[in-house]
Amino acid sequence: MKNKVYIYKPFERFWHWAQVILIFILIFTGFEIHGTYEILGYRNAVQYHTLSGYIFLILILFAVIWHIITGEWRKYLPTIKNLKAQAFFYLFGFFSNQSHPTKASVLSKLCPFQKLVYLVLKLLVIPVMVASGFLYLIFRFPQKSSLLGISIDSIETIALFHTAGAFILLAFLIFHMYLITTGITTTSNLKAMILGYEEVEVKTVQVKKILIEEVVEEKSFTAVKEEVND
Amino acid sequence: MKKILFSLLLTGIVVTIVLGIYEHFKNESYKQNVNNLPHKDIVINNHIPKISCQTCHIPGASTENLQGQNMIYSKENSPKCRECHTVNNSRLAGLNNIYMTARDSNKFIEFAGVILIIFSFIGILIHGTMRIILNLKKKKYN
């Protein structure tokens, strides 16, 4: 029996797909500015890169506020529980038709691996990229007064951080796009991110059990218990 | 009360961002001086927040590559971005004490980055082919 489980809220889906568009534009124009290829022209590439950088900053601010207000940031707190089981699943269990050790639901949409990766991504890679990007943008040569901009001597360090971060983000994107296909069916993860629902192959009781176990952690057990009794 | 405070905070952030972007692109005094230049479109449209006149019109740039020129261009001959921002034959190749985008890069980061990307592709290719093969086998047995 298959059950539909609500996983991604509307804002999360909007946030995700806006990020998809922006990061693709940023990487495409970024590597053109870097000199890897010549398609749009240097000037256009710089202008699109700058504009999408500003939009990305606004999007980040909204996302941060949303995460704080709704308390969703707790979903990213790392757990060592199940991490080992999951590593074994992706390396070996995948091929012997085992079921995934952790199941996605609205209450815990991220598995331990995802938590770890997204935590590093959101606390390290993205902030470094945004900070170095905007420092890159405001530097002025030569430095007339200390408030006008960043000194020309520091631009190399800033640029190298930005480049290294770009490579790491690109590698992340490659894995991320591959991992789309590792859902219950090949397209179920993609559907979940577009529609918000995922088809989970468990019985209703099991779904409720999973929900209860997680709700206990959230300390609102009684409400769900009543629901189940009904 | 919470809602009011939150909306105030949100408005403050939005206003700050909008004003910051406006100030960043405005730079009025610069534009007035630059309006008389033949290559004003380059300076105003793209370079103004980042690079001032001295970036191009400095001794270090003209001694090696542009002997005898004062680096003042007609509108038609004004330099394009890629004349400087390129690895080979950059106009500012002599200006080697600064980092310039697209002209300079760190060899280690380039190498490590390309290796990282290649290994990512190899990794997902191996994992993906193994999945496909094992799925086919399963179907056979079923």
Can you offer a commentary on this structure?
The complex is a heterodimer of chains A (230) and B (142). Chain A is mainly α. Chain A has 8 helices and 2 strands, in the order βααααααβαα. In chain A, strands 1-2 form a two-stranded antiparallel sheet. In chain A, helix 4 packs antiparallel against helix 5 and helix 7 packs antiparallel against helix 8. The radius of gyration of chain A is 21 Å and the shape is elongated. Chain B is mostly helical and 142 residues long. Chain B has 6 helices and no strands. The termini of chain B are far apart. About 8% of the residues of chain B have low confidence. At the A-B interface, helix 2 and helix 5 of A face helix 1 and helix 6 of B.
Task: List descriptors.
heterodimer, A: 230 residues, mainly alpha, two-stranded antiparallel sheet, 2 strands, B: 142 residues, 0% strand
Summarize the structure.
The complex is a heterodimer of chains A (230) and B (142). Chain A has 230 residues and is mainly alpha-helical.
The number of E-state strands of chain B comes to: 0
**Strands of chain A, count:** 2
Low-pLDDT residue intervals, each spanning 5 or more residues of chain A:
142-149, 215-226
Mean pLDDT of chain A: 75
- Helix vs. strand class of chain B: mainly alpha
Output the structural class of chain A: mainly alpha
Radius of gyration of chain A: 21 Å
Per DSSP, the total helix count of chain B is 6
Shape of chain B: flat
In N-to-C order, the SSE pattern of chain B is HHHHHH
Q: Which H/E pattern describes the elements of chain A?
A: EHHHHHHEHH
* Radius of gyration from the alpha-carbon trace of chain B, in angstroms: 26 Å
Q: Give helix % range of chain B.
A: 55-70%
Percent range for β-strand residues of chain A:
under 5%
Mean model confidence by pLDDT of chain B: 71
Largest sheet of chain B: none
- The percent range for strand residues of chain B is under 5%
Outline of chain A: elongated
Distance between the termini of chain B: 64 Å
